Amino acid sequence: MEKIQFQCDYNEGCAPQILQRLSETNLEQNIGYGEDPHCEHARELIRKACEASEADVHFLVGGTQANATIISSILRPYQGVIAATTGHIAIHETGAIEHGGHKVLAQPATNGKIQAEQIKQCLQNHYSEDGPEHAVQPAMVYISYPTEYGTLYSKQELKDIHNVCLQHHIPLFIDGARLGYGLASKESDITLPELAKLADVFYVGGTKQGALFGEAVVITNPALKKDFRYFIKQGGGMLAKGRLLGIQYEELMQNDLYLTLARHANEQAERIQKALLQKGYKMAVPSPTNQQFFVLPNDDLKRLEEKYVLSVWDRVDTDHTIVRFCTSWATKKENVDKLIDTINRL
Amino acid sequence: MEKIQFQCDYNEGCAPQILQRLSETNLEQNIGYGEDPHCEHARELIRKACEASEADVHFLVGGTQANATIISSILRPYQGVIAATTGHIAIHETGAIEHGGHKVLAQPATNGKIQAEQIKQCLQNHYSEDGPEHAVQPAMVYISYPTEYGTLYSKQELKDIHNVCLQHHIPLFIDGARLGYGLASKESDITLPELAKLADVFYVGGTKQGALFGEAVVITNPALKKDFRYFIKQGGGMLAKGRLLGIQYEELMQNDLYLTLARHANEQAERIQKALLQKGYKMAVPSPTNQQFFVLPNDDLKRLEEKYVLSVWDRVDTDHTIVRFCTSWATKKENVDKLIDTINRL
Amino acid sequence: MEKIQFQCDYNEGCAPQILQRLSETNLEQNIGYGEDPHCEHARELIRKACEASEADVHFLVGGTQANATIISSILRPYQGVIAATTGHIAIHETGAIEHGGHKVLAQPATNGKIQAEQIKQCLQNHYSEDGPEHAVQPAMVYISYPTEYGTLYSKQELKDIHNVCLQHHIPLFIDGARLGYGLASKESDITLPELAKLADVFYVGGTKQGALFGEAVVITNPALKKDFRYFIKQGGGMLAKGRLLGIQYEELMQNDLYLTLARHANEQAERIQKALLQKGYKMAVPSPTNQQFFVLPNDDLKRLEEKYVLSVWDRVDTDHTIVRFCTSWATKKENVDKLIDTINRL
Amino acid sequence: MEKIQFQCDYNEGCAPQILQRLSETNLEQNIGYGEDPHCEHARELIRKACEASEADVHFLVGGTQANATIISSILRPYQGVIAATTGHIAIHETGAIEHGGHKVLAQPATNGKIQAEQIKQCLQNHYSEDGPEHAVQPAMVYISYPTEYGTLYSKQELKDIHNVCLQHHIPLFIDGARLGYGLASKESDITLPELAKLADVFYVGGTKQGALFGEAVVITNPALKKDFRYFIKQGGGMLAKGRLLGIQYEELMQNDLYLTLARHANEQAERIQKALLQKGYKMAVPSPTNQQFFVLPNDDLKRLEEKYVLSVWDRVDTDHTIVRFCTSWATKKENVDKLIDTINRL
Q1: Which of B287, B217, B226, B258 is nearest to B63 (CA)?
Q2: Which residues of C touch B126 (CB under 8 A)?
Q3: B138: Cβ contacts below 8 Å, ≥ 6 apart
Q4: Same domain flag for B153 and B292
Q5: Which of residues 305-344 of D touch A (CB under 8 A)?
């Protein structure tokens, strides 16, 4: 019997609406590299959804590529990016940022988040030194919404970070690989237009949110727009058949599909969370989105792994492991039923 | 009336078989990053087609990405890659190779090709200098099959280049973005297994050959295999839903689909070539594949552009332009009929 | 009245013997780029001092340059260097290592040192992960002898680190910007030949040890020797008048000058240490070399700064500061007398 | 008998005045990294000599380092630098510019020079393309004064280049590694202040002009000044004992020493030129500065090489070679007498 996968949010293909539309448009002739009408339309839909009529929107294929391209477009060679130690760019991208020549100035994270005060300290420490030119200059902030641990910044936390950035004239970049799961969370107190106003650049993730692939980069700060397409091309991120990205985002951005898919994933994650809490397991991190991190005794983990594929996140001690349960737009209710049933029998 | 596009070989989506298969497998649960059964199967099919049972096969999304990743994986920081001045890496990738720290040692090309003797000279010049360490060390060769001008190296030319590389212990990398159009050409005198033996690394292009996207990198030289996945990931080329690449190459490599699609494109290109020659136009480059480069009077070009989208390649003089006519797996016979008709009326 | 400087170990020019010799040889005609007889002779003297007759020796101008060049010559693009969080490459080189494309994998340091067990853990964590290619691969170790805090690794600690490196097939690089102060310390239990055997590559610092400038890189591991001059040239470190480096190291390596100068600095540092301890001040770090780090009340610091230039290292709290007192080969005994006198009167 | 060297302009140490001054100041205590009074004074002298009171002046150690640092400070990652195919950055720096991520957009040179019209064409070609983002964006111009072949741009040529740069909003960088030999040439029609007005950034070379080492970078364009010290430090070019550079430039910039030394070299070069011309040898390039390039029969070259060290520049055919005769501030009249005598006897 095949195991059911709760391993990640990219185990399946894509929302059926997208495949359908790809089929319908397959023989259309379109210009390449993102300059076709589908991309143009998708850009317009995203600007509207963000209430950012002047924003530039670019489509990239994946998250590591989007992060590296955006950061490369902002920093000068001697500058670095402030991020959480648990940030995706700090640990899970094989040094893509360093490959581009930049240091990730990693700050200790709590539940995947860093706070305005830490950022302020980092900046003040740099400039208060004699000879600041002997150290990497902190010049932008990277955070993820939701974080790599599924947690959310409150609107106030984002405003505080935004303000520190403003005072120090550095941009705020929000990694939105799972943006929908965040915005659709019951605990989110922020809307997409509000987030678009607080960030200088961010992306509306597709890969983990129902598309085959794709990340829609939104640049709201005019100072960051110049020549961005050169960066995309140089970084190997300019898809020849750009239409594929345009068509996918046309679908995602219509009929509330983006948030509908995310809401479904969050609901299934919440069901799993409840079952695990009722059974007395401890949350490793309190996450209100589609990723759930729990501390499990290794024996229980082993029994779960007979039927399910899960993500082993970290070892706690010789007997306990932090395990990630991940749902997605594609997670089937009946598979969650089965998982809960198994949990209850542990 | 919409114009018919002969502009490039990525104007349409993909071969219907591929879309069909993507739909059928859409809700399968698969592990990410190219380690799923579809990728494994596609790798096996490619190894067989290449008669290279020990080769490593990796799937990347696009050509610039594939070129940058492969070259980065081979060269040390002080080394450069020998290429034609007209090579894709030399002019059409926004300096992606330089971004990775390497100089493209561009050699004058004839009809898009460089020859073994030029490569030999370049290597000898470097090492005969006092203090060779003051110049970039030539350390690999990049050629395209077919070239960016649609032309083909003969088997003997490839052997000669291969032998120079062998003598100087540097690898030969063949950019196969349009590999199928080359192999399927009536003028090709080489097979895929033969080409696989002469190259140390090459790729079987998908984007321009009927896939939505994708390039299958084949590493036959064992010395070049180590840690290649790190390079893919760092370069932003590791697709989360790797299955998409696996599924596409499963289809392309079955039932002779890859070459069948290419043959069709070549046939349509040949029809256009004949019509243009009969009308007395001059070939800019004698191409036996899907790209045709002709010198057209600007007036004639203007009249063609009323109904067709073509690629303007270069200006010859104030009155003449080099124009590219490009066909693909998706080019409709009836559209070529129309184009020929228009040519005949010029 | 001019203040006396105990700020760093590069406040003065160079040992008089060196200037004398530069004058004597000034009009000699020599070939450039380090291939002259002085460099050759100096290399021979260094090999002898290290009892490493097969070692390659290269002369570079400064420490940041030497670190960046060496690390660049060893790592592949996806690899990183393990170092202490307080290591020079981690914080004081404006991201020179990242500029070269590599992540510094910083490990928590105690008194400026990291231990074999930490290195082992870092390596094991990397390889035990699913998909290690998603993180930077640790591929070399960087330590400083003495450390940036003036402390010394014991021979046993170095052997342990060496053994971990050996087991994991990664090289050990020792930054010896202040090597002499370490070897000449009363608490050192290691000799230069012993250190040369434990390191795969290291340098014999000149800039901070009595030369005008210069660092002599010693490569003992044959696998690291290839094409090193290309790296020097590319990194802008190949001095046209290489003779200047050769002549300086000829002098330093003769008549025990290198260690004699260092011993003098250590003695003066020890005198300052004793005076501060007797007065009841607390060492921030127990250093047996030419740098002394003490916690001073801000008021006392202010009084000292009326007459002396010191280095403010770190703030402890609102009332206390960590201050560095630094001596060198050039420190005058009578100036230390004066400083001690002032300390006693605080 | 030792051979007399006419091989390059860095065969000897430095002007005696410099060594003298280094000795006198040797035990002064100075702050490091170029912030000492000698550097400050030298900066002031250079600003005066350039009549550029607002210019920023920075001291670097060598030419490759200066070129790489300046270019890195100006270009964004997707931009390249226009230069002559014979430019130092294009061929003699082991790809230092590419290591920094940038393409050298090499233009065919005549006698080492490129012209305004070529630069204009290069810029127009780039922007006239569909999708300019597929190619490296030309964003600065690099020329050398004198060129690598000893030739000089006329004031008008420089003005024309300056104007093209101005129109396209890109900076002009003049490599002045041998600036003095150019300015002191009888054929020069430009002064240092005039050159300083035409360039956005340039350097006053020391290494090849009588200093032990050193290049004084002058930034006249305010837009290029920001954070330049970060670039120096990151590139490994920030000399700890910056005083050494300050002291050397204090001497060079006083009492007309810089141009006096250069004039001497040019005079000796002219004597050699005359002797070779009288003997009927052909100039390879008509140079009015300290480097003379002549076509010699290989037999004659062999005979000269019995007594002199010369630079073999290029092979013309199987029987002829282009040879460089190079003089410097240090070239002894009596050695030139001997060389001329030998030439006359050939």
Answers
A1: B217
A2: none
A3: B79, B80, B81, B82, B105, B122, B123, B126, B170
A4: no
A5: none
Tell me the C-alpha distance between A4 and D60, whole Å. Answer: 62
Q: What is the pLDDT of residue A229?
A: 98
- Matching residue, tokens 């200066």: D66
Contact A99, C80 (CB under 8 A): no
Query: Both C124 and C216 in a single domain?
Result: yes
Q: Please answer whether residues A174 and A195 qualify as being in contact, where contact means their C-beta atoms are separated by less than 8 angstroms.
A: yes
Per-residue pLDDT at C183 exceeds 80: yes
CA distance A267 to A181: 10
* φ, ψ (nearest 5 deg) of residue C11: -80, -25
Cis peptide before D146 (omega within 30 of 0): yes
CB-based contact, C93 to chain A, within 8 Å: yes
Instruction: Please count the residue pairs, one from chain C and one from chain D, whose beta carbons lie less than 8 angstroms apart.
Output: 147
User: In which domain, by residue range, is C272 found?
Assistant: 4-10+257-345
Tokens of D164: 């093209």
CA distances in angstroms from C15 to C242, C245, C249, C251, D27, listed in the order given? 19, 14, 11, 9, 9
Interatomic CA distance for residues B34 and B239, integer angstroms: 7
Beta-carbon contacts of residue A345 (< 8 Å; ≥ 6 apart): none
Chain D positions touching B100 (Cβ under 8 A) are 101
Angstrom distance (rounded) from CA C208 to CA C8: 9
Same domain, B203 and B274: no
Which two tokens mark C203?
A: 């340098």
- A8 part of contact set with chain B, CB < 8 Å: yes
What pairing do the DSSP bridges indicate for beta strands B137-144 and B201-205?
A: unpaired
Instruction: State yes or no: pLDDT of B1 exceeds 90.
Output: no
Q: How far is Cα A214 from Cα A208, in angstroms, rounded to an integer?
A: 9
Among A233, A252, A271, the domain boundary falls at: A252
Q: What is the dihedral of CA D268, D271, D273, D277, to 10 degrees?
A: -170
pLDDT-based confidence at A271, cuts 50/70/90?
Answer: very high
Question: Chain B contact for D22, CB < 8 A?
Answer: no
Nearest partner of B28 among B252, B247, B250, judged by Cα: B247
C87 and C181 part of one domain: yes
Q: Does D127 touch chain B (CB under 8 A)?
A: no
Strands D320-326 and D311-315: antiparallel
Order the strands of the C291-297 sheet from edge to edge: C282-285, C291-297, C320-326, C311-317
Distances (CA, A) of C72 to B98, D10, D156: 16, 28, 44
Are C262 and C237 contained in the same domain?
Answer: no
All residues at 6 or more sequence positions from B51 whose CB lies less than 8 Å from its CB, including other chains: B192, B193, B196
Q: Answer for the pair A257, A251: CB distance below 8 angstroms, yes or no.
A: yes
**Chain C CA closest to residue A311:** C130
Q: What is the DSSP string of A292-314?
A: EEEEEEHHHHHHHHTTEE-EEEE
pLDDT in tens, D83-142: 999 999 999 999 999 999 999 999 999 999 999 999 999 999 999 888 899 999 999 999
Give the count of domains, chain A: 2
Residues B244 and B281 in one domain: no
Span C217-275, pLDDT tens digits? 999 999 999 999 999 999 999 999 999 999 999 999 999 999 999 999 999 999 999 99
Say how far apart CA C127 and CA B193 lie, in whole Å.
Answer: 35
Q: What is the mean pLDDT of residues B296-320?
A: 96
Task: Show which of B187, B220, B252 is a domain's final residue.
Answer: B252
Write out pLDDT tens, residues A7-41: 999 999 999 999 999 999 999 999 999 999 999 99
The nearest CA of chain B is from the CA of D282 a distance in Å of: 24
Is B76 in the C-facing interface, judged by CB distances under 8 Å? yes
